[in-house]
Structure formats: structure tokens, C-alpha cells
Amino acid sequence: MNVVLLSGGSGKRLWPLSNEVRSKQFLKIFKLSEECGREVSDDAVYESMVQRVYRQIRAVDPEATVTIATSKSQVSALQNQLGQDVRISVEPCRRDTFPAIALAAAFLHDKMGVDGEEAVVVCPVDPCVDEDYFMAIKKLWELAQEGEANIVLMGIDPTYPSEKYGYVMPKTKDPVAEVETFKEKPDLETAKKYVEAGGLWNGGVFGFKLSYVLDRAHELMDFTDYEDLFAKYETLTKISFDYAVVEHEKSIAVMRFAGRWKDLGTWNTLTEAMEERIVGNARLNETCENVHVINELGIPILGMGLKNLVIAASPDGILVSDKEQSSYLKPYVDAMDQKIMFAEKSWGSFRVLDVKPESLTILVTLNPGHGMNYHSHQRREEVWTIISGEGEVILDGVCREVKAGDVICIPAGQRHLARAKTGLQIIEVQLGKDISVTDKIKHELA
Amino acid sequence: MNVVLLSGGSGKRLWPLSNEVRSKQFLKIFKLSEECGREVSDDAVYESMVQRVYRQIRAVDPEATVTIATSKSQVSALQNQLGQDVRISVEPCRRDTFPAIALAAAFLHDKMGVDGEEAVVVCPVDPCVDEDYFMAIKKLWELAQEGEANIVLMGIDPTYPSEKYGYVMPKTKDPVAEVETFKEKPDLETAKKYVEAGGLWNGGVFGFKLSYVLDRAHELMDFTDYEDLFAKYETLTKISFDYAVVEHEKSIAVMRFAGRWKDLGTWNTLTEAMEERIVGNARLNETCENVHVINELGIPILGMGLKNLVIAASPDGILVSDKEQSSYLKPYVDAMDQKIMFAEKSWGSFRVLDVKPESLTILVTLNPGHGMNYHSHQRREEVWTIISGEGEVILDGVCREVKAGDVICIPAGQRHLARAKTGLQIIEVQLGKDISVTDKIKHELA
User: Which of A313, A359, A409 sits opposite B388 (nearest CB)?
Assistant: First the structure.
């Protein structure tokens, strides 16, 4: 099958573990169970939503082609978690799901040579599901390939009358049925009526032939091919696939799914899906009830006498919230002057250790075999102290080997990079009056 | 008047803000009100218990002689908070209050030349009180100077039948009365009876003439003078002043005190005394009730929907506790493998930024005009990057001036120190296989 995973969102609702560069799908909070059949080392027993979904798809269909549609800012994290070879349709900026799906379709057709007659299933990257979900996705892909309907959706059998989801009303109770109508997120009373009337939650999954969505895209947007659409991407109107396409389509089928399906959009729902109460260095005394802790800091957390709380700590901040209240997190996080203190990059990661008016101290971790871009800074010097590993640095074209204990002073203007042979860790002290991530000039390596 | 402040305790009950080198009396959690008449800069609006008590004594009696009796490990913090000139009777190790008071008395008599006929008041450094308490202390000192009783105690008018304090039973209801008897910490029912019978809380304050306590000391311990007692200190038996002296004395008076008096031994009582709900970078949403936050980390804390909690965060760890439950903290902290991540020293402070198997990264802050001891390490090298300020370093006897941006590499075995001209901040990376605080050799500066 051919699957496009939509990986979106800046995920402020899961602050402080998610930030502008690390969306919730990258949080490593799911314990890898032994049934996965993978060798698990001590410090790699957790996987993220995106790693889990990627693994589950391959388990169901080892031949599946998976493309991830996402913004530029997530590419490094995806490569870090799924490997350099992961197939990504990069969105130059955020333009909602219709432009994103159109771009991914053009990418598959024009760049990957996928035939217009081949079906594609688009689904969100972040549902918490079991493998039966992806068996259903495969079935849905087959239905789309058969082509009786132009679009095939997944309808989740509701377990309660939820106000959080849109509803799909099918014409019959058959496993696959024509869609009668769509309903927006209802209030509780209306939700009850929808459920009584046989309504299903809209799971945000769309199956169609590639040519179908490309035709719709050409009707609604003026572009020639993938390159052209990519170049124009910033000028496109933000519009969802539902509004742009689904609402205007007569030929839509919905396939029922009754397995585990959870939307992990808030701390409340996310902690429900966690198999362990504690991830990271934390202890809860015996009087704690229904408390979850995720601690990404190097210091211990002690919880005493707590009820129905989530505690989440990262280099970005510390959240202590009643689980119900955690749904109302976003405006408070929006109001914060939030600096990004940690990020996964394609080559490894960085973590801010200390911030001063005229200096910034960072721990840089380069994964074995990886290196940073060749670059220079105009308004800051840097001092690197290698604290572990072996590798090389290039300074204004001159290469030298480095190992733990070496110190490299990089004046402003000097082009530089570091590459890791073994995993390389560097304490980087940035010094200057005007330190900014924007002060970075990339250079070609001669 | 002549006051000896007993500054004790490792303060695990206020983890993570107190640790082995930073007792609760050093926590800066009391907002300096403008009535103090001090100029207050933006980052110095809080004072610690010890600073507050020191200031209150001077306000009541500018001529007061204050001596702090404490262990070696607290000297740096005391000098940091009260200035280099603070008078300290240093205990070589902890031996409970009788040896501590005897040593302080010998210190005053033999080193400071205080006459044996002069009265001294010994009181704990950590009660939360107003200035009227020290007016009472002054009155108590005058009573001790008059010498009608050998010991004068302070009896706190009980506001409720507490199980936490020992009781003093006076013979009469007069403001100053002879003591009938002492009672250990009672259970609730017994406490009620004591209060009904006119009992007072024992405030841990003792007034006496210096010769009185020196005589008791010579009776119970074999020593000649201060130097001798100091040299023998480690061999002394641990015993409290109450057991060793008070219980055997017939001539004891108790002076009533009915003003504000709080023992701030647990988070529960400490937060009651805080004038502000939040100290440091934190926000509580409007659904929080009776929550206190003290945040010494550089990252924000957000609390949502919390009730009756204390949140305390420091480089040592993060506590989230129900206020009642916080009294049971100590065993959990004892069970932790706690590393000291932050300490105030006489010359400034340090904070651990990163810990790796073969490296340790530290932010070192040297106060203006201060310097570290001249020392070397056998099993580690150090890389210093100066991030702010100006000063000088001495390396194997060679002095050089340093400023922000300078990098100093110190191989194992090299003698070194840094001194600050202006406030000097250094990122220090320690590198070696066996990094330990014990790997430090002090040297004389030629």
C-alpha cells in the first residue's frame, strides 16, 4: 500500500515537551514492549508516536511505501528518529491539509513516479492505535484502489458521545457504506443524537486514487507540476482537505473501524495511553493516585500526596497540572516568552545549558558518522571543548582530528564544522553581544 | 546585647532547596519590604532567614554583638550572605547544642575577650518572627544580666495545642516566672492539658552569664581553653543543652512572648510564612488554590488546577507535594543518591550544568574582589571559558589578566586560581576518568 502520514502541529498543548521544533509526535513516551521483537538497549526503551506508527505500518505491510508530509522544521527530527532514508514531502511553510496533501500527491507522482491510477491513503501521524488499525488502513487502501467511491474515509465506532470529533453519518450500518452527510464537532446533547443515529467519528483518514486528488488540486490551484507547486507554496490559501474537497464530493464511502483509536492531543489523553506512570527520573510516594510524570531533565522529581496530576519537565519548562485542566494549557503557553532549549537535529541534538546576556552555553551531541553544515557566524565567537568521542573539525578549509579534551576557538567569521567518527559531544560556549540563531551563514565545502 | 545564633541542620526536610551545604536558613524566600529602608535592586529583593534575623537584631539594637555558631560547611554561605566580617564560631563537626554552645562561649571569652560576667542569649537562627521578638530577646538578655536566675528561657504563648514543641510549665502567670517543670513533645490530648494548665512552648532560647555556661562546660568536659576545646571537638559526646544543663538546673526563669513566632521546619510551615505565592519564574492559573512555588531554575513553571501544593525546584531536583504530605519528605530524600548541583561559597557560587561519565560542566561565579584558593587536581584537566567580567588567573605562579572570551586550559597537576576584579563568570569543563570533589590539593601562593 501507499501511505502518506500527515505530520503537523507545533503542539503547544503538550508543553513543555513539545515546542516549535518538536511536535508531540516526536516525544519518546511509549515503552517498547518485548513483543516488538527488537533488541532494546537500556536508554532506548521508549519510542515516539511517529516511530511507533512507522513500525506498525511495516509490521502490517513490509512492502508499504510511506511518505511523511511535513514542514521544513520537522525534517531534522524525522531523520533523527526514522533514519536518513525516510521519504519526506517537505512543505516550505504551513498551509493546512489541502495544500499539504496536494503537494504530497504531486511529489509522489512527479518525483517518485507513482502512477495516477494507484491509490494512496492519507492519515494523521499521531493516533494511538494497535496494528489492527493499519490492517484496516490496508483494507481502506484496497477499497480506494477498487475505486467504487472517489474517496474512502475511516469512521471510528464511537465509544461515547464525544464533543471533540466531527461525525460521519453513513447511509447504512454496513462495514462499508455510502456517506449520507458530515457533521461538525457537536455539543454533548447533539453528540448523543449522532451516536444514536449511527454516526461515526471522522478519523481524518482519506483514501483515493492519486489522479483524483491531483485533478482536484489543478482545479483549485494554478500550478504545472511538483516543482511549480513547491515554489508557489507560500502563496497558497490555507484550507483543509475537508472544506476544499470532501464537502463537494458526492461519491464518498466510509469504512467502519472498531479497534483502539485515541487522539493524544492533550496531556489528559496522552497520559491515558502511557503504559507506565513514570518516564525518566522520578519517584511518587504511595499516597499519589492517578499521577503521571515525564521527566526529561537530569534532576530527580519527587511527588508526594498528589491526585490526578500530570508533571512534565523538559529543558523548556515544568508543567504541573490537574489532568482535566491540562486541556486549557495553550493560551498560557502562548503567553510565555518561550525559548527553545532542546532540539533534535538530523545530525544529533543540542541542549541549552546556560543563558547569559552575552553568552550561551550548549551541549552539542553529534551522532556517529554525522556532521553539521559548514557555516560561520558574523557576530559571535565560539569555544568548543570536546567532552567525549572522536571526530574531525574543519576550520576555514583546514581539517584536523579531534578527541575528548581538545579545545577549539572559533573567531567570528571563521567557517567551521564538526563531524563525528564515534558519537561526539561538545560543550559550545557562544560569546558575543548579539547572539541569535539567525546569525548563521552556510558555506559550500570546497 | 550579646547574641549567639545557632545555625544548624542539613535541612533535608526542605529538599530540593536545602542540601548538605545549603540549610534552610540560607534560602532567599522572604521578600524585602520597603519599610526595611534598604535600596533594593531587581535581583536582590529576597532575603534568607539568616539575613532577615541578622537585619532584625541590628534594627532592634545597632550595638548588638552577634556571633553565629555553625559548622565548617556553612561558613562560606554565611560569608556570602552576611559579608566577610560576620563573627563565626566554627564547629569542626556536628556535636549537638551543648558542645556548640560551650564552644561559642569559649570563643567569646578566650578569643573575643568577653567578660564572664556578661550575659549572652543563645537562640536559633531560623524562627520566623517580627522585630518585637528581638525586643523580647533584648529584655531576656537584660534579665540574664541581672542574674536573678541562672538561666532565662523564652516561653512562647501557645496559639494552639501543638504536638511539635516541648512545653515549659511556669509557676505563675507573671510575664517572668520561675519554671516549675519541662515537658517533652506531647500527643494532642496531653498538649491540650498543658495549654489549659498555662504551659508555654519552649522557644529554644537560653539567656545566661558567660561564666555560668563555661563553668558547666568545664564540669562536664575536660578542656583548658577555646583552642583545646576546638581541637577535641570531634571526641565530644553529642548531647543537647537541654539534657546536659537545663534539666539539672534549679534556678530557671521563663519570660513569656506572645508575638509572631513560627518554626519553619517543613514546606508546610515555611510556605505559610511566605508573603508571596511565587518566588522565581512561575505562573499559576486562576483555578489554583493555596499553592506556593519557589523556582530557582532558569526555566518557567506552569501550574494548572492545583490545590494545597508546594512546588520547589532547584538544580538539585523538583518537589511537587501536597502541603500536609511535605512533612514526610525526609526518608524519600535520604533514599536519593543526591548530588550537590549548586552551592554558595565565600567567593561566589557554582552550579553544575552538565554531568557526563568523563566530564563535568560547571558555571562558576566569582564575586567582585573575590578569588578561589590556589589549588591543583591530580586526575582531571580543566578548560575555563570566561563568559563575563574581568579578573586575573594564576597558573603555576604566573599571573595574567583575563576577560570575557578568554580560554584557559589547565592540565592535571597545574596549580591555579582565578580572582574577580568585576564579577567574573566562567564556564568550567572538567575532563577526566575519575572526577571527584576530593581531588583537590591546596597550595600556598608564593
Answer: A359
Q: Which of B20, B121, B7, B19 is nearest to B71 (CA)?
A: B7
**Beta strand pairing call for A127-129 and A261-263:** antiparallel
Helix (H) or strand (E) holding B373: none
* Closest to B408 measured CA to CA, from A160, A276, A429, A342: A429
CB-count exposure of residue A98 (10 Å: 0-12, 13-18, 19+): buried
What's the rounded mean pLDDT across residues B133-142? 96
Distance from CA of B244 to the nearest CA of A (A): 38
pLDDT at B36: 41
Long-range contacts of A130-135 (CB under 8 A, 24+ apart): A130/A56, A130/A259, A130/A260, A131/A56, A131/A59, A131/A60, A132/A259, A132/A260, A133/A56, A133/A257, A133/A259, A133/A260, A133/A261, A134/A56, A134/A57, A134/A59, A134/A60, A134/A61, A135/A60
- ipTM of predicted assembly, 2 dp: 0.77
Residue B16: asked if its preceding bond is cis (omega within 30°), the reply is yes
Q: Which residues of B touch A329 (CB under 8 A)?
A: 302, 304
C-alpha cell at A358: 552575552
Beta bridge partners of B293: B278, B311
- Who has greater pLDDT, B38 or B148? B148
Q: How far apart are CA B438 and CA B446, in angstroms?
A: 24
Its sign, for the CA torsion A8, A13, A15, A17, is negative
Give the list of residues 6+ apart from residue B433 with CB closer than 8 angstroms, or none.
B358, B379
Q: Are B343 and B21 in contact (CB under 8 A)?
A: yes
Digit-coded pLDDT (tens) for A257-295 = 999 998 777 888 888 878 789 998 999 999 999 999 999
Q: What is the pLDDT of residue A9?
A: 67
CA nearest to B44, candidates B59, B58, B28: B28
Q: What are the two backbone dihedrals, phi and then psi, of residue A185, each rounded to the nearest 5 degrees?
A: -50, 120
State the nearest Cα–Cα gap between A350 and chain B, in angstroms: 12
Q: List the single best residue of B385, B390, B402, B407 to mutate versus A (max A Cβ within 10 A).
A: B385
CA distance B328 to A26: 37
This prediction's pTM: 0.77
pLDDT digits (tens, 9 = 90+) for A357-379: 999 999 999 999 999 999 999 99
Range B263-274 average pLDDT: 82
Q: Identify residue A241 by its one-letter amino acid code.
A: F
Question: Which grid cell is A242?
Answer: 475537508
Residue A313 corresponds to which cell in the numbers above? 519537565
- Cα–Cα distances (Å) from A19 to A53, A92, A322, A366, in that order, read 21, 19, 21, 21
> CA B40, CA B268: separation in Å to the nearest integer?
28
| pLDDT of A98 higher than 80 | yes
Give how far B157 is from chain A: nearest CA, Å.
32
Question: 3-state class of A425 per DSSP?
Answer: strand
Q: What b/e readout covers A384-393, taking b as 16+ CB neighbours within 10 angstroms?
A: bbbbbbbbbb
Per-residue pLDDT reduced to its tens digit, A101-115: 999 999 999 999 999
Q: Quote the minimal CA–CA distance from A208 to chain B in Å.
A: 43
The reply to whether omega before B411 is within 30° of 0 (cis) is: no
Task: Please tell me which residue, A387 or B276, carries the higher pLDDT value.
Answer: A387
Predicted confidence (pLDDT) per residue in A299-340, tens digit:
999 999 999 999 999 988 999 999 989 888 888 888 887 777
Q: How far out from the chain centre does Cα A25 lie?
A: 4
Question: Over 50: is that where the pLDDT of A36 sits?
Answer: no
CB contact under 8 A, B302 and A309: no
CB contact under 8 A, A328 and B285: yes
Determine whether the interchain pair B429/A359 forms a contact, defined as Cβ–Cβ distance below 8 Å: no
Write b or e for each residue in B270-295: b if 16 or more Cβ atoms lie within 10 A of its Cβ, otherwise e.
bbebbeeebbbbbbbbeebeebbbbb
Query: Hey, what's the cell of B29?
Result: 524566600
CA angle B401, B406, B412 (to 5 degrees): 90
